[in-house]
Amino acid sequence: MTNFQPEAADEKRGIVRDSRWHAHRYDAAQDAFQFRQVSREAHRQATFLTDEYLGESSRTVPVPRVEALAAGAERARVHFIFHSAFCASTMLVRALDVPGMAMGLSEPMLCNDLMGWRWRGAERRQVAAVLDASLALLQRPFGADEAVVIKPSNIFNPLIGAAMALRPDAHAVLLYAPLPVFLASVARKGLWCRLWARELLEGQLREGTVDLGFGPADYFRQSDLQVAAIGWLVQHRMFAQIAGQLGPERVRTLDSETLTGRKADALTAVTRHFGLSQAPEIQAAMLAGPALSSHSKFGQSFSADDRAAEQDFARRAYGDEIDKVHAWALEVARVNDIAMDLAHPLLP
Fold first, then answer.
1. Rounded CA separation 15/12 (Å)
2. Which of 220, 228, 258, 289 is found 20 to 30 A from 195 (Cα to Cα)?
3. 84-132 pLDDT tens trace
């Protein structure tokens, strides 16, 4: 059971200034952040920064937002990986976690809390103020001259514009799986993933970002993969708008097949885009790291051939459904002027 204890002001200031105390949750009712100890090694071992992967904490320290901001914690440079799911984003952020270069934060619960609060009716200016404080706490440095790279969950995507506006020096990669690959992943992962696709669309409808010519009743008549395709199209249109608004100096786009097929080129290009250390020994450590040769979520050895085998299985098992939905989605995209390829690709 998590243990909440009263802390003295000096101790709370020390906690806020120490990046080993992770800003894990935001409690809107108390306007406070909940901190828990997470070592760098624990960050590496956790697929996502959620209770499921971090495990039970023996002590969680609540700090009111005003006190957390007053503590004057140092801030590192921050950059972002925004993604639309099933696109090797976890592999990418883990690969960038190299001492002396950057610390990668994979899907902090804090970002999810902000979206949940927004969906419960929080005023948008309040959300922006808490987002600013949340980013400040997430970007506390883990090592000298290290940047912090944050990869939020894709439910955070409606806040991309706000995050980039609040951090005008930040750069971002918009990472996505091509639509057929995305559909194959949803089909292959089974019932839980088909339900996830419907939850994604539910959130997008709540945000008012689904404007593709369908009425509310239409979604009840659509298959799971059609719903997944709508969610992908909505995110893809959002990415296109962000790339167009912010331009190539701040935002580059990348698809999962280019990333996994040209890992060394892609990682080198990402570090250059983020302005990370180009020291030969650090670049070599990044390219030799375990993130490039192991499964991002389960840890076992995982090669490009293994990834191709997964896709081949999905094609053999669900190919007819995938092909029909893909053709339907392309027509929806054409009618709504949604391009399949995004501007400002990271690699030519």
1. 5
2. 258
3. 999 999 999 999 999 999 999 999 999 999 999 999 999 999 999 999 9
Work out the pLDDT band at 306, boundaries 50, 70, 90: confident
Residue bearing tokens 């690699």 = 347
Q: Give the bridge partners for 173, in sequence order.
A: 81, 252
The answer to whether the pTM exceeds 0.85 is yes
- Contact by Cβ (8 Å): 50, 1: no
Q: Residue 283 has which token pair?
A: 């670049």
Using DSSP's 3-state secondary structure scheme, residue 32 falls into: strand
**Per the structure block, which two tokens stand in for 131?**
């987002």
Tokens 């969680």 label which residue? 60
- Residue 276: both structure tokens together: 């990370």
Decide: 204 and 211 in contact? Cβ < 8 Å.
no
SS (H, E, C) 122-154: CCHHHHHHHHHHHHHHHCCCCCCCCEEEEECCH
CA dihedral sign, ordered 35, 104, 310, 288: negative
Which stretches of 190-295 are DSSP H helices?
A: 191-207, 224-246, 256-261, 263-274, 280-287
For residues 270 and 96, the answer to whether their CB atoms sit within 8 Å is yes
> Residue 132: phi, psi to the nearest 5?
-60, -45
Report helix, strand or coil for 101.
Answer: coil
Among 200, 201, 322, 185, which Cα is nearest to 257's?
Answer: 185
105: amino acid identity, one letter: L
Q: What is the C-alpha to C-alpha distance for residues 171 and 250, in angstroms, rounded to an integer?
A: 5
Name the 3-class secondary structure at 281: helix
Using alpha carbons, list the distances in angstroms from residue 271 to 66, 68, 128, 275, 279: 34, 30, 28, 6, 11
